[in-house]
Design goal:
The chain has 185 residues and is α+β, with helices and mostly antiparallel strands. It is elongated and about 75 Å long. The termini are far apart. The chain has 2 domains: 86 residues, 2-Layer Sandwich (Fusion Protein Consisting Of Minor Coat Protein, Glycine Rich Linker, Tola, And A His Tag, Chain: A, Domain 2); 88 residues, Alpha Horseshoe (Serine Threonine Protein Phosphatase 5, Tetratricopeptide repeat). α5 runs antiparallel to α6 and α7 crosses α8. The strands form 2 sheets. Strands 2-1-5 form a 3-stranded antiparallel beta sheet, covered by helices on one side. Strands 3-4 form a two-stranded antiparallel ribbon. Helix content is 56%, strand content 17%.
Length: 185
């Protein structure tokens, strides 16, 4: 079998240092394992890199990018002769547990406030989360709606704008976004 320079531990070190968790995937709590296949050539070069099974565009593209950047491997051999070998590699994308827990806790607090139309308090809690964490679509979208309901046009425009960068807004949301931004000018 072919070998990464320095062995399996060096491979995992390389992956750990090189992979950058895509912000959009982190914001949307995307985690899981991406499976990549590639061929280690006669000289150890990496070729024919393909996605076998993915978890989402951003993580899939990041896994492919990192594999394509790998240094040459020690080629596989058969009877002492170098041979091309297809290699499958799982790459895990795992969020720290406290991020998921913190977001779940935030939802428990803000959703009742939003449902009671206590938009000011809801917005304050959402903004505290946004200011200390990488935010995600759900949080930005809810903050935009709170700001919109409070007639805070600038904030509504800002949060709708940031949310729309992560995920396409529906028609009604897009209208509120445009209305808030028009009013903010």
């Amino acid at each position: 079998m072919p070998k990464f320079p320095g062995g399996e531990k060096a491979l995992f070190d390389y992956l750990g240092k090189t992979i950058k968790y895509p912000e959009k995937a982190r914001n949307n709590n995307v985690s899981g394992t991406v499976y990549i296949t590639f061929v280690v050539g006669l000289e150890g070069s990496i070729a024919e890199v393909k996605l076998l099974r993915g978890i989402g565009k951003e993580c899939d593209e990041e896994a492919l990018r990192v594999i394509k950047m790998m240094p040459a491997w020690q080629p596989g051999t058969q009877n002492g002769v170098p041979v091309r070998v297809q290699y499958n590699l799982p790459i895990r994308f795992t969020l720290r547990g406290n991020e998921k827990e913190e977001k779940a806790e935030l939802k428990k607090v803000v959703m009742p406030l939003y449902e009671k139309r206590e938009y000011r308090e809801c917005l304050d809690k959402l903004e505290a989360y946004i200011n200390k964490n990488t935010s995600d679509f759900d949080v930005l979208y809810l903050a935009a709606n709170c700001a919109y309901n409070l007639d805070f046009s600038q904030k509504a425009c800002l949060y709708y704008s940031q949310a729309s960068e992560l995920k396409k807004l529906g028609k009604d949301d897009q209208k509120r976004f445009e209305k808030a931004c028009k009013k903010a000018k």
